[in-house]
């Protein structure tokens, strides 16, 4: 019927008109901030490297990490934690930031060289006028040949204001947050075996020269004409059970109380509203997922929740069919002062 076609046409027109508006709406309206206890920098953390480039804020609540032509810098939590909520407000360097990686991650690679665990948020700098992007990733028990990268854009400019970035790790799930929006949840599956992080980890934050990897597959390196590059961290949160990683069993018992505290917190429950926000975020801002990269993983990893509507948007390289102007980049990231990734998504 013509009437139907006309109606469809009108609907298409309406949705076309609404689209630009819709994409500028906040991902998560009426967000109630998490009720968090922040700690002063010196109470929970120590410099890791590039000490001269780590500058404490006058109020002691934060630090600036600098990268200049001589060194990057970083800090590490004073303890390892058996599960936890790791969170900071972060403001990224602006202007020309190609080749720079700012990493906020948990790891125990210093203790377990061969079978470490790791949870990553890694911000990737860009050439002038192009936005920062970031990726999340995880390894368990040394599963470095099975990267689980997802890559995303942000719905705001991370160089203009502080935003909160968080990693929740419990025995049953892992949630990555940007502000109050859960952007990725990994639910533990039996079949993951040791790939699910299970040993106490430290929190790390670093800024480093990732010229060989971070931007356009290494084609745009760090330009030190714009140095120093400054990443700011404040309002730090470390909720978890400080644990000796070698003594695993008694730790589990000693940590039971802390774990029940963790899992009773607001951030441990993804409400219906937050789940809808997560779906919106992933529809609009995720441009690579290892779950849809069937060239790399012909059989998706066990925790992958393959959504037909989501899958339809991705090629078998795990990249977006439309709107993903990210060319194939063969280079791999070298080992460096950042997270200990070996086997990098080809994105
Ligand atoms: C926030 O957390 C503190 C400490 O855990 C608690 O005493 C307080 O009641 C909480 N506030 C709200 C609004 O839940
Ligand atoms: C973790 O790796 C170690 C050493 O490779 C191995 O002995 C152990 O069984 C693994 N644990 C799990 C849970 O897979």
UniProtKB/TrEMBL annotation:
Family: Belongs to the glycosyl hydrolase 16 family.
Function as written in the Swiss-Prot or TrEMBL entry: Catalyzes xyloglucan endohydrolysis (XEH) and/or endotransglycosylation (XET). Cleaves and religates xyloglucan polymers, an essential constituent of the primary cell wall, and thereby participates in cell wall construction of growing tissues.
GO CC entries: apoplast
Keyword annotations from UniProtKB, A to Z: Apoplast, Cell wall, Cell wall biogenesis/degradation, Disulfide bond, Glycosidase, Hydrolase, Secreted, Signal, Transferase
Domain GH16: start-end pairs: 32-233
One Pfam family recorded for the sequence: Glyco_hydro_16
Annotated stretches, region: Disordered: 319-347
Source organism of the structure: Rubus argutus
GO molecular function: hydrolase activity, hydrolyzing O-glycosyl compounds; xyloglucan:xyloglucosyl transferase activity
Phylogenetic placement of the source organism: Eukaryota, Viridiplantae, Streptophyta, Embryophyta, Tracheophyta
Skewed-composition ranges (Polar residues): 337-347
Name of the protein: Xyloglucan endotransglucosylase/hydrolase
